[in-house]
Structure formats: C-alpha cells, structure tokens
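Lecture 7, part B: from sequences to assemblies.

Below are the input chains for today's worked example.
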Amino acid sequence: MKYLFLLISLLLMPQQGIAQKSFSDEFKYKAIYKLTYQPDSTDANSVRSEFMILYLGEKISRFSSAERSRGDSILRHRKRNRLEFTGRFQGAPQTKFDYYVFKGIPEGELSYTRKIVKDNFRYVQDLDLFNWEIQPETKEVSGYQAQKATTNFSGREYTAWFTSEIPIPEGPHKFNGLPELIVEIRDQKDHYSFVLTEFKEIEGIPFDFTTKDYNTTNQRKCKEVVEKYNFDPFAAMERYGMKIHFTPEQEREAKKEVKEKFEKYNNLFELK
Amino acid sequence: MKFTISFILLFLVTSAATHSQTSISGKILNNAGENLNGASVTISKDSSGAILAYGISGGDGDFRIKVNSEADTVFLKVSYIGYAAWTKQLSNADQQVDVVLTESSEELKEVMVEARIIQQHGDTLSFRVSAFKNQKDRVIADVLKKMPGIEIMSGGQIRYQGEPIQKYYIEGLDLLEGRYSLANNNISADDVSAVQILENHQPVKILDSLEFSERASLNIKLKKQVTVSGTAEVGVGYSPLLWRTKITPMIFTKKQQAIVTYQSNNTGSDVSREIRDFSISDFGREEFSINKRDWLGIWQLSPPPFRQERWLDNNVHLGSVNYLIRLKKDVDLKTNISYLNDFQQQIGNTRTRFFTPTDTIDLVENTHNELFINTLQSKFILERNTSDNYFKNELEVNGFWDSQRGNIMTRNAAIQQRLSNPFSAIRNNLRLLKPVGKQLVTFRSNTGYTESNQSLNVNPGQFAALLNQGEPYAETEQVVTSSTFFTDNSAGFTKGIKSVTIAPEVGFSIRKQQLESRLGVMDGGATTYPNADFRNKMDFLSSRFYFTSSFNYKKNNWNIRLLTPLNYRRFEIEDAFLEDARELNRFTFEPNLFIKKKVSAYWESSISAILSNDFRDFRNTYNGFILSNYRNIRRYNSPLPESFSQAYNGRLSYRNPLNSIFASTSYTYAVTENNLLYSNQVGQGGAILFEAFEQENTSISHNLNLEGSKHFNKISTTLKLGSRYSLIQREQLLNNNLVEVNNHNLNFSLGLESDVSDWLSTSYEGNLSFLQIAMAGRDFDEIRSQQHLLDLSFFPAGNQYFSIASEYYYNNLSEENRNSYFLNLEYHYTIEERKIDITATWNNVLGTDEFVSVSNNEFTYVQSTYRLRPSQLLVGLKFSF
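Predicted structure of the full complex, as structure tokens:
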C-alpha cells in the first residue's frame, strides 16, 4: 500500500512541479518535543537530545528542529541572540535533524523538505502511513492523561501516548492519525523518543508555502542525496561551486573527521 | 484542526480474536450546518475508560468506526478544536449518528514542562536561575551561592567543583577581567535567565581545538538582549551617625557593556571587595606579579573571621568605571578604572604567649590603629579573540598612597608607630597568536616596573640592645626604597598533528631589583645610623633563558598535557656593604604533567605532577637588618635561598546534572627541599629577631579535600558538605635549637539553603575546626573552634520580608568569651510598581561588643580581642531602574 502511494506520488510529481501550488495557513498552537536519540546504536553513551517544534494550523502543521526554527523567517521577529563562544557555536543552526515535515501539504499528504547546500528538496508522502493499534494502558505524560497506541514505521516499532485533552490528530515528525495529539512516542529500543515539553496557544503566525521553492523528488532520491552529502559534504559543496581552500593535509584531516562521524552515526531515524 | 483528508477512515482491531463487530457511522456538522472534517471520534467502554476504537471525520464530515467489543453499550465522544466535545452513550449495534457540534471558547490545557534545573549541553551546564531564586534574593551572587557545585568564597572568589573559575563572562563578554565581584554583587537576579558553567573552557578561541583546558568559566545569560539596569541606594543610621550610598548603572548590549559604580559607607561594608582581582595566570608560566607588597608594617590586629559588617570601622568611597566596546570586527576595547579611598580603625588587644623550648613569654598589647587607604587601579585592554586570530594587549597602571598609624599600650610602655607605605606599578602584557602557514606563531611580551618608598617610625626606640648599646632612646626610623623592573619576552609556534599539539617556545627574561634601606636611631634631636649591619644597598639582577615545549594530547576521553621547561637562570647580587658580589648559575628542568580522563558521563579523574625550582627575590636576600614592624627585625645574611619542590595531585570529581549532585575530592602531596632555615629569636619583651641560616631542610605537606553538594528540587533545598585535612611537617630553628613542627588542621563544613515554604526560607552554615600543633615531639593543646550561622526569612506577603540572622562562635582556648552570639534583624518592603525597596536593619541586636579569637603559628598562641561595631539601626531606600 505504501509503495503504491509512493508510486502514485511519483507519477503525480511532474504535474505538481508545473502546477506551482501555493498553500497558506495560520499557526495557532505550538508544541515542543524533546527528541532524545542515540546516533551510534552500539554506544549507549552517544545519547544526545534536542528540541523539536510542531506548529499547528487549521489545515497545515509544520515540524522542525527548534534550532532550525530559530533561524527561520517566520520567527525572525522573535529570534534570540545566541552566545558565540567558540567556532562550534557559530554559523548554521546546530541540529542533526535539519528537515521540515509539512503535514497537509498537499491536502491529505505530507511534504518532507530538506535543504542540501543550495537546493531545497521535497518529497510527498501520504499521511496515512501508520497502522495504529490502540492499547488499553493509560499514563500521565507532561501533565496530560494519555493512552497508549503502537505502530510500526520505517523499520522500527513505536509506542505512542496520545491525550484526549488535545483533540488534534497530530504528532511529531511524520506521526499522525491518532485521534488526539501524541504527547510521547518512542521506539522499542529507545533509540529515538519524542516527549512533549510544552504546548500552548500562540498569536497566529501566518504561513505560506509555494512548491516552486522546492525541487520535488521522491523519498529514495532524497535519501540518496542526503547520504551522499553526509558522506562527502566537500564534494557536494564543490558541485555547487563552493570551494573550501584547504591545504592537502587539512583536507585529508577534514575528510577523515567527516568519515569518522559518518561511521559513528549508524543509527538513522528512518531505517527504511 | 481541519485536515481535508479525502479518504481516511481509520479503524482498528484491538485483538486478533473475532468478536462481534459493529459499525458506527455518522456525519459531523457545526451549528451553521457546515461539514467538519478532522474531528476526532472515539469509542470507549464508558466515559472514563480507555479508547476501544476511533476515527477521524473526512472531508464531508463523515465517519465510520468498526467496534470489536462484546459490551452492550459504548460511549461515543466527538471532539474538535474550538467546539465543545459531544458525548453520548450508545448501544453497541450498527447505527448512524449525526452530530452537531457547538462552538466553544474553552481553551486547551496548556503545559510548559519546566526545563531541567541544570541542563547539560556538551561541556556547558546551564543552571536555571528561577529554580534557585527566592523573594529575598536581589543580586545574582545571592542565587549563585545556592547552586550545587558552585561556591562563593568569603572574599568573593567563585569556585566550581572546588576550583576557582577562570573567566566570568556576561553574555559571552569578559568585561571585568577577574574583578567580577562588581558584576556578581550588582547584576539583578531578575535580569538573569541562566548561569552557565563552561567546563574545560579554552578562552583563546584559536586554541580551542589545539590546547585543552581543564578550567571552568562562568557565563551570565541575561533575559534580554539589551539590558539597561541599575540600582541607587541610600541609607542612614545611628549611632554614631551612619550612612550608606550606592549608585550602579549598568548596560549590556551585544556591542557594548558598562558597569559604573559609586559607593560610600561607614557601616562596615568593605566595598574594596568589589574590585578584588581574581584573574588566574596561564598554565606553567612564571609571571611577574605587580601586587602590592609591603616591606614594613604597623602591628595589626587579626580581624574576626566573620562578616566585616560586624567589626569593620570604616569610612569608604569607591568609584569604578568599567566599559567594553566592540570596535570593528571583533576587536574589543576594555577600560577598567577604580578609585578607592578608605579610613579604617582597629581597636583591640592581643595577648601573645611565646613558647620556646626553654621558656614561655607573655605579652599584652592594647592596640589602636588607623589605616589610610588611597588606591587608583586602571586597566586598558585591546583584544581580538576570533577563531583565526588572537591579540591581546593589557596595560595596567596602579598607584597606592597608603599610610598607617598605630598606638600600642603594653604593661609598661606606650608605643607609637607611623607608617608610610606607598606603592606604584605599571605593566604591559602582550600576547599574539597568528596562523602562518600550517602553524600558529605565538609571541608574548610582559614588561613592568614597580616602585615603593616606605618608612616606619617607632617611638620609643626599639631593639635598644642591638641598636643603641642597651640604652633606651626616643625613636627608631626605618626607611626602605625599592624598585623592580622586569621584562619577559618569548616566541614560539603551535602546531597540531592529529591528536597532539606541540608548542615549543623560547624566551628570555630579566628582573632587576634595587633595594636601599637604613635604620636610624633618633635621640635628643639627632639621628645616628648604626653600622652597615642595619643598612642595605643592593642590586639584584636575575635573568633566565628558557626553552619550553608543551605537548597536548586529546583523544576520546583522555587529555594529557606535558610541559618541559628548560631554564638557564643566573642571579647576580651586588651589595655596597659586602665585599663580594654574590652569583649563582643554575640550569633547571621543571616539568609539569597533567593527565585527565573522563571515566564516564559523570565521573572524571585527573592526576598531576610538578617539579619546580624556586629562587627568591630581594625580599629574601638582604643582608642588613630591616625593622619590619615594631617588634620584628629581620635579615637574610646567607646564600641565595633555593628550594626544590615536587608536588603530586590526584583528583576525582563527579557531577550529575540530572539529579543535581556535584562532588569532588583531591589529595595533594608536596615535598620542598630548602637550603636555608629561618630562625626566630624571641627576646624578653616579645621582640623577635629573625635571621636566616644555611641548613638543608625539608618540609612536607599533605592536603585532602572532600566536598559535595546536592540540590533537592522538590523541597527547594541545596545541601553542601565539605571537609579539609592538612598536615604540614617542617623544621624550625628556635632559640638555636632545631625542632620539628607538625601542624594538623581538620575542618568540617555544612551549608543548607532551603525555601521551606512560601512564607519561610532558611539558610544555615556551620563550621568545625580542629588545630593541633606538635613541636619537638610535644603536643600543644588542641584548638577547637565552631561557627554557626542561621538566617530565617519570613515572607508574610509577596512584597515584604522579615529576616533574623543569628551567629554563634565558639573556641575552647580563650578563658573568657568562649562563646559569642550575634543577632541581626531586617525588614524589607517593596513598592513594586515604583521598584522601590525600603529596608530597616537592626545590626548587633544583642550589643556584643568584642570578639575573641585565637590563632597560632609554630611558636606562639595569640589571643586577639577585637572591638566590634555597636548595636546600630539603619534605614534605607533602594531604587531599581
């Protein structure tokens, strides 16, 4: 079924590219999740965390890392100054999850977008990705009474907790389709988990999305591009005509470092 | 939330078993008859039960839910944001239900899961200020001292895990360079969102990946990007007439920061602490100090070991201007200028008992001292600290125009002392790091000059046996003129090869010191100068060539640093009163090794070993006697002092930000071999003749430190525990006998800060210490002392508080006044809309008028009685802007 949808979206893609559709909405609620993850499946000490933000509108929701959101145009007016102590803190947002998920773009589907150097890639997936099984257990998560549900997604088994106190059938990342908001979701091995840390109503933030800003492709292609970039970002940058002036030694060092990082990051979020 | 999901009807099967399946379908509309899509429809057993099945309405408002349940009735709930939830008990049978939702303005329940009190992000720990602050806390220092792992020493120095912090940043900028108490005691706690501890912080950005640092720095994160704030305070009191004023405007932006202050009081608040410098020097560098050091002094009373407000009789004015501006690209210009003027009085008495192997001597001195302090300190810094360049030039100019007067009444004499002890210093410190090719080229230059012309007059004349053939005389006059010029220049490079950074450096330093002194006997209007034994005219030139390599290794959880300084040192002393010039050449190797391993996310261990040679300066090489105070006369008629030290240290620390536990322990063992021994000859009137003799000797010290702290979030309490033990063994000449002196010191401390409830907060600090001295195998009485401080603050309303501060001190040695009690009362009222604080304070309610303390060194027990400030009332007004 999933592949069928992929196939369909593949077929539909050229038309969408030409159609240049625009979507707009107003975000009215904000949910912040803390994402805790283990990039190296063999090393329990590699556990890291960062905050992710889900903005919710009438028809559209937008999910991204808080770091990415920080540098975002719609939030420019509330952009905060961050300390610049060392080189580590400068420049691009510090996130390992540099993507957006727009649910409801287009209707009934979701758009996953990822910027690689200068290109903004996008692929579309049907929203109906999950076959949820509701379980009888309940517990309290972040002050909300929540009920358990389980599903399989992309090679991992997940347990989610959703709360009837927020009747929005939404969740972090691509997760959706439970009757109410997901306040916690984690995979069985506890390699990836999202826990709600904040939920509040906000003054409406207008939002616009135009497909022409994106290079629409499919999930497989997008994954390939990202992997290629992660494996050798310098080559990817060169393809865009950006050249870093390294000495041969520095270049070797830098490439080695990237390679080591790449090898340690063996535990991708979406396995399939 | 309306997802126009064209075809979503999700259904679930809760178990594989086949039950009777019913299908409930329907349509969801609003009042206006519009289809609602994206509404959630749930089926549960009853109104509070778990969901059995659910669906989400489609684009036309339709839903269809299959229910697998044997229950007779089910509970249907339809909810949609902005509408009131619709519920109904239904029979569990196939049916069609149409639902009309009515709009509702009911808001969703919002949550904000409070961020952790202490959050860790790599090497940065963020302490959330709001979690530690209570209604009474005004400035950031009040909150800082409650944070686990952080402590503020009584002088104002901040420590993290028992080690002094390296930098105190405000929003990442180092405005005050070590004089951070000014910020710490004035920035409002309300303006600060978090205090960050930057562990292993390398302040030089270009060295960030090359040279690790085991030191921690602190950063104040403000709530606002631009903070303009300040306080103005006035207070008056009685008796005698008391005043207190303080005005401190501050501004913090991304490009500019400034703290300006004027403070004045006679209430015993020692504002000079605000400008005390806690900068720490770089690893393994011999740096020339330009700190003020006096040759001469009047007989001082040892101050009580507690808050100055209890005992300091002062009249102080402090002005300080601190300004930082980011000029063009990342170049910071910093100016710090402070002026301090103070007049202090000390009144008390000292009973000293001198123990010599053959005798004990008792001396009683009733003392009244007047100290005049006049200090100007300034620093001008130009700094560029980026990831590809480092430049810092620091020019420091300090002037001290101090003088003191002292009157002492002993049983049979009245002694007057007049001291003039000015001091001036200038220093320029330059450091450059620049990439050239594949390495960093480094250059340092440190040059300075200090000067001090001091004089001490004592009336009547002292040391008559030594100076005036045993005849009493009118006045002793000691004059000392000294100057020091120094310059230290070095060049080197830094290169990273894989995980190792190598930094060789060559340098050359010169220190030229001049000392002239003369002891005069004034009697009958004439001054005579005894022979050359009581005069100095000395040139002391010491030079050093050095080649130092530093190796830094950083990989995985290991940090290793090795410094291998090779020094060629040359000392030349020319003394006008000695026939021969003294000379000494030494080639020394003084390595310094540090190894640290991060054992786990919470545990860290380190060891270090340092070998060093120490050659003193002109303060320990003069040949003619100098009267350093009215009953101490000293000289060093001996070869150059040389000492060789080995120090080994092991350290283990634990910190867990999740449950707010911080703990550390360290042990240091040090052995020092000296070529000289110093002797104190105690004369009849307690006069001490100090001389140096050539005699190989060794001193050994052991130090063990333990400390731990934990914050209990649920009960808003921070608990801090600590213990220290030290043993110092050394040899001492006492009245021509060589004796071994053992000094044991054991100390326990307990601190508790707790916000017990909304209306009560309490803080307690307790200290127990035990001191045992053994000399020549003979144990002296153990000195036990205790300190207990208990503060209770009551908050009857949000805008006022009342606090009771009580203190108790005990020592077992003094015959009288073993116990001292103090009590302070304070009432505080805040007019919030005007940001005005009104305070009324009653200090020393019990009217305790003196404090007795005991102290000791190798051969004396000293019991000092210090006159305290009387019972005083003070009212004050404070404006925040």
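Note for the exam: Residues 57 and 787 of chain B are 72 Å apart (CA to CA). Keep this in mind when comparing with the next example.
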